[in-house]
Amino acid sequence: MVIHNDFPxxxxxxxxxxxxxxxxxxxxxxxxxxxxxxxxxxxxxxxxKVFRALxxxxxxxxxxxxxxxxxxxVGGRILFAWRDWGPDxxxxxxxxxxxxxxxxxxxxxxxxxxxxxxxxxxELEVEPRDHGTIVRVTDTPTDPDAPHGEVIPLAVAAGxxxxxxxxxxxxxxGARY
Length: 177
Fold this sequence. Notes:
alpha+beta; Alpha-D-Glucose-1,6-Bisphosphate, Chain A, domain 4; 7-stranded antiparallel beta sheet; 3 helices; 7 strands; 22% helix; globular; disordered N terminus
């Protein structure tokens, strides 16, 4: 019997429908859920405006976080803060160290390990285009073999999709969550 209990919306199954290694099981070391998560979107705004929204505490606090602070330099700390966030009004803090900061090109950080949530690296690249700026996010587990359950990559993938939508709505229309 295979039980997918790491992801609460999946129900217990008497037999897995996957042939071979199940991508939702911890045994699936080659699981696609352990691969880097990649998202991209077009934001109809100049690259410098988009990059400021992604790489400064004021920018992040305008559309994604509430109370984030940052030492904006390679090696600097980011203390992320979400207050009464989302439909469930959660309050969450996270910390990271800046790995790369190339103005109007790339901003990357490594999330600190947190209980039940192993470290990941998030890289945000911006690329100017005729009609705006392409934003590419690549989020990679620092240790793809870390025992963490498969719900984390699923949540991270969904979270980045939502974050890019919020970024786009804020930069293009001034809309805030």
